[in-house]
Amino acid sequence: MDKEATKVQKMNRTIPQSKAERTRLRQLAHDFVREKSLQPPVPLNDLDALASELIKIHELDENLRDWLMVELHNGVWLPTVASIPYERRLLLLPKCLRDSGRCEGEMDDLGLLCHRCGRCLIPDLQSMADRHGVLSLVAEGFTSIIELMRQHVVDAVIGVSCLDSLEKAFPLLVSHAVPGVAVALNDGGCKDTHVDTDYVVELLPQLGAETMTLLDYDIIREKVDLWFTPEALACVLTPASDATSRASLEWMLCGGSRWRPFLLAAVYAAITKPRPLVLPDEVMRAAVAVECFHKASLVHDDIQDHDLERYGQPTVHARYGESMAINIGDMLLGEGYRLLASLQNKELLGVVANAHVSLCLGQGAELAWKPGQQVSIDDVLRIFRQKTVPAFEVALSLGLLSAGGDKHTAYLLHDYSEALGIAYQLKDDLSDINDEHTAKPSVVHALQLQYPDASDEDIKSKISVMVEDFHTKALASLAEIESFELKRLLFQATEKILGRDK
Known about the structure:
two-stranded antiparallel ribbon; 22 helices
């Protein structure tokens, strides 16, 4: 949609004018998503499609789309929010609800310090929140919520805001899989606004049949990091008694995001929901094995790509020579397979072996390409599917198998891994825009051949569109996953892996 079309859409944005009509449409939206048995989170594209379907079925005004998307979002999330304890919820109110001419409150860095003088709706709503033990805050925007959630102060939000602010906040809330419902103000402007107070009051005391405690993925990350200390690795890897094993251990302790072992452990925890949060030894061994395979692939990649630096320090072959580096990489492959062979679930070995073969085929296709040789987008995506996708899928699959997951979820994770892996590699290819001497076939090369007159900016724009397309496919592939925690994990991981976690 171009800027002018977007501007017109915003100008034509409609809020149902009467309270009775808003109540009726809210019920329609909530019933609609209940009939579809949707599991949150739901991507923005899907919310938009749901709004289109609802508008068509009930012959509603197209300009109600944004407002309806908010209520569809609420219908999807309300059961989850209702299952979160009151003390873990936040009521977020906008300062524009106050009586601007008579308000006695002061503003600080966080928001409005309400004196509860009774001259507007804010004191009544905050008092209602207090009675239920719900935290309340009068502030502008939703970015403060994300920080409160990162600090584990709250797990869910009931937010009141204008449609313009919700439009900006929704991508943030969806990408972080924030459990929450939103109430749109009944009018625009930045002061003396109004809201359906009884609807907010109705949402506040909602309680589900079960109480939910969200997994703390920061704690899982901390546990995983502890598996990669010298002391922990010494317990599971071959004793560092010679040059090869010492160099292998040293390389395992080097930097990197350790996304793969984290994802394995987090998928296991999301499915099993252990209380207390204890990750068994078998999960730890599988996670260390996955990192062994990853580190081995980096050693070999750096040799094949003639790279002399990684993590801001010399690569393994730059430090020890190519022959020794090949041996170190092979040692780590052996360590990974040895660890997997020690586990009870032997299915993990087959998954990794198949991924290993696929990765080698992809790497071989990449190595066989010569600069100046013809290459199509399909050729490059085929390499991505063989080389990059398995790296994500192995971690997710091993976590799923360790948790006793089902085959249908495995199929969904395959589709997710494919879309995420391609999006990740496409973003990496953007760095090739100004590199005329790269020895790898990339989407940049393919697009330059397809559009010889295109500028670097045009090529960059086309790749960015492709990244967005595969990002959308990755999230859409999670629609049928039944586990809320698994969906929440993968929504958040997608944004972090693709560098969109802002």
